[in-house]
Each structure stands twice: as structure tokens, then as C-alpha cells.
């Protein structure tokens, strides 16, 4: 089996996330993409994040109907900070014969040396990097090559078209009472409205 974990705050999840998941599913011939909403992400402790159960509900709505997409509450049920190395160790322990991939943006690749226990992360998965705006490809390729040499592990750059959408942009539009339904998977806007999210704030 080949499975990928797609972690993120998903606050809110948008069609850019779904696009990435499908590209990974098809390009890597995956059996499953597991969406993993962060519980307490260490890099966002200073930023307000929507309650875990609401973000979980938005992701559940977004992936409804896709048999090869699933959602895990592993990190949001954890009492500790959401460290990637711990998540990957646990999932590898549960399914030792699964080939694991972990989806991250190119921004994460460029700051990977700041992550906790990188060697454990790379021992427990193949890192798959998707594009984001604002990064020169020469710099990305150099970082990929340096990390592969340093840790003796393969890192995959996911060849895909870029949908330049951000959760921050969506929250700003909602706070300005602008339409966002074209940026969100079906059902997500209903959850946003149900909990009155992102009004009068960015």
C-alpha cells in the first residue's frame, strides 16, 4: 500500500488543498491520501487558530464522496504539540508495511532544518513537496539536493500546476463580506456560516 499524509491547519481548507491531494494521488499512484488537521502546531502558537473540531468538520465536508481521501483526528486528539516526526512514527508503527509519503509546501522544504527530528521524519516517509509562489526554482532545487545528500534520502518535487489560493486570502474576503464559494470545496462554506467564522478579522 502507498499512502500520503497531508497535514495542515486547514483554516479553512480550500480547493487548492484538494487540487494538491488529487495531484499527489494520481502522480504517485497512491492508494489513499489522509488529511491530518493539526492540533497544536508549534509554528503557529502565536496565531489564533479555529477550534479543532470545526476544522475537522470543514475537512470532512471537503473530502466527502472521494473514496481515496480520508481524515485522521490523531493530532487534534493529542495533548501535546503536533510534531510531524511523532505522527509519522505512530503511523509507521500501525502500518509497518505501508509505503508512507508526507505532503508539504515548498516553504516547508526551505525551512526543514528548523523542524524537530528531521532524520526521524525522513526515515519514516518520503517527503513530497508541492509548489508555492514566491520561491525561485533554482533555490528550491539546491535545497532539495543539499537535504538529500545530507540525510541520504529521496525528496520528490510534485510536478503540478499551481492554484494560487491561500486560507489567509479567504479569511480576508469573508471579513470584507465578499464571495468565497468559488474558492471552497462543497460544504465548507456552510460550516463557516454555521459557526460564523472569520467575520471582522483576518
UniProtKB/TrEMBL annotation:
Q: Does the keyword Zinc apply?
A: no
Residue span(s) of domain Cytidyltransferase-like: 5-172
- Look up the EC number in the record and give it: 2.7.7.18
- Involved pathway(s): Cofactor biosynthesis; NAD(+) biosynthesis; deamido-NAD(+) from nicotinate D-ribonucleotide: step 1/1
Family according to the record:
Belongs to the NadD family.
Keywords on record: ATP-binding, NAD, Nucleotide-binding, Nucleotidyltransferase, Pyridine nucleotide biosynthesis, Transferase
| CDD domains assigned to the protein according to its UniProt record, in alphabetical order | NMNAT (cd02165)
Species annotation: Clostridium sulfidigenes
GO molecular function: any one?
A: nicotinate-nucleotide adenylyltransferase activity
Q: Which GO terms describe its biological process?
A: NAD+ biosynthetic process
Record-linked Gene3D superfamilies:
HUPs
Which reaction is the catalytic activity of this chain?
nicotinate beta-D-ribonucleotide + ATP + H(+) = deamido-NAD(+) + diphosphate
According to UniProt, the name of this protein is: Probable nicotinate-nucleotide adenylyltransferase
The record's function comment reads:
Catalyzes the reversible adenylation of nicotinate mononucleotide (NaMN) to nicotinic acid adenine dinucleotide (NaAD).
Q: Which Pfam families does the annotation name?
A: CTP_transf_like (PF01467)
SUPFAM superfamilies noted in UniProt: Nucleotidylyl transferase (SSF52374)
The answer, when asked if NAD is one of the entry's keywords, is yes
